[in-house]
Amino acid sequence: MEIWINPACSKCRGALRLLDEEGADYTVRRYLEDVPSAAEIRDVLHRLGLEPWDITRTGEAAAKELGVRGWDRDEASRERWIEALVAHPKLIQRPIITADDGTAVVGRSEEAVRDALSRS
């Protein structure tokens, strides 16, 4: 199991605390420092069953500067969104937990983190 975190994020710290309380075996990835490649983002999106716009933090300053709220949300625009996430990793929703069964969750709630734990 791997968890993509921003240490400044309270949701990330909460997810880590829960994983530790449950004795989970996991690896931490500070995705702002160790930026995921486009291929890794595509893989995580597949595992999540989501599209890049589903995991984009549209309220971030970079999102506003890029104008992502006005971008098309279709297959033709998918790579544009992925490239924005690579170029501006702060736009990636957090925390993302990849489970051992090949799936992933956005662990913003205790229930989502427990869901990831049940899959590993």
From TrEMBL:
Native source organism of the sequence: Streptomyces kanasensis
Keyword S-adenosyl-L-methionine: no
Superkingdom of origin: Bacteria
Family: Belongs to the ArsC family.
Family matches, as InterPro entries: Arsenate_reductase, Arsenate_reductase-like, Thioredoxin-like_sf
Annotated protein name in UniProt: Arsenate reductase
Lineage: Bacteria, Bacillati, Actinomycetota, Actinomycetes, Kitasatosporales
Classification via CDD domains: ArsC_ArsC
Gene Ontology terms, MF aspect: arsenate reductase (glutaredoxin) activity
Tagged with keyword Signal: no
